[in-house]
């Protein structure tokens, strides 16, 4: 979700003349303070709501399924555009490893390594020799996770996983 969905819900709430406590009060089994904080974050586009909660909010605000589908398409287009803009900027290969719990260090990749295969071999060797968990970002194309030199996860960057929490370290 992004601000598009949150703003739409906020607009519907304000059209009804409801304050946040009014809206949250209409949703059963919610703590008023926590509920207001959740809705504020959602309306600002800072956090997503559980699909069940989103459905309950839509019902309370009398938002039809067709409107939700239209918002979903608009949301998808916005994410695709944001991903395309991010992908268009050049991104260098980056390598990070966990030095100790909660301490992540960026490791320089030797400049003489040119191909993805050479960079992956370097990262695997580094991870194996130091027995660390590591992440290799191949530009803006792909992310690899490894443990003790073994690749445990290999995932391309796509618009579908662009907003996921494990998109992880944003390459600048």
Descriptive account of the structure:
The protein is an alpha+beta fold. The protein folds into two domains: about 80 residues, 434 Repressor (Amino-terminal Domain) (Orthogonal Bundle), CATH 1.10.260; about 70 residues, no CATH class. Helix content is about 50%, strand content about 20%. The chain has six helices and five strands. A five-stranded antiparallel sheet has the order 2-1-3-4-5, with helices on one face. It is elongated and about 65 Å long.
Keywords:
434 Repressor (Amino-terminal Domain), alpha+beta, 2 domains
CATH architecture of the largest domain: Orthogonal Bundle
At CATH level 3, the topology of the largest domain is 434 Repressor (Amino-terminal Domain)
Spatial order of the strands in the main sheet? 2-1-3-4-5
Q: What radius of gyration results from the CA coordinates? A: 21 Å
Mean pLDDT: 86
> Any idea of the CATH class of the largest domain?
Mainly Alpha
The N- to C-terminal Cα distance equals 23 Å
Q: How many individual domains?
A: 2
The dominant shape is: elongated
* Strand-pairing-aware structural class: alpha+beta
Q: Report the sheet with the most strands, covering strand number, pairing sense and barrel closure.
A: 5 strands, antiparallel
**Helical content, roughly?**
40-55%
Q: In percent, how much strand structure appears in the residues?
A: 15-25%
């Amino acid at each position: 979700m992004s601000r598009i969905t949150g703003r739409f819900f906020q607009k519907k709430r304000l059209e009804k003349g409801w304050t946040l406590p009014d809206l949250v009060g209409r949703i059963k089994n919610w703590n008023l303070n926590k509920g207001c904080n959740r809705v504020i974050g959602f309306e600002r586009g800072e956090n997503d709501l559980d699909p069940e909660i989103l459905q309950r909010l839509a019902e309370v605000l009398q938002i039809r399924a067709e409107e939700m589908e239209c918002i979903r398409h608009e949301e998808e287009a916005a994410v695709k555009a944001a991903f395309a803009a991010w992908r268009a900027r050049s991104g260098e290969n980056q390598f990070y490893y966990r030095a100790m719990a909660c301490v992540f260090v960026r490791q320089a990749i030797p400049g003489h390594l040119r191909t993805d295969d050479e960079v992956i071999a370097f990262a695997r060797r580094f991870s194996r020799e130091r027995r660390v968990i590591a992440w290799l970002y191949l530009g803006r194309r792909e992310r690899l996770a490894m443990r003790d030199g073994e690749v445990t996860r290999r995932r391309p960057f796509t618009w579908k996983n662009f907003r996921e929490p494990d998109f992880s370290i944003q390459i600048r």
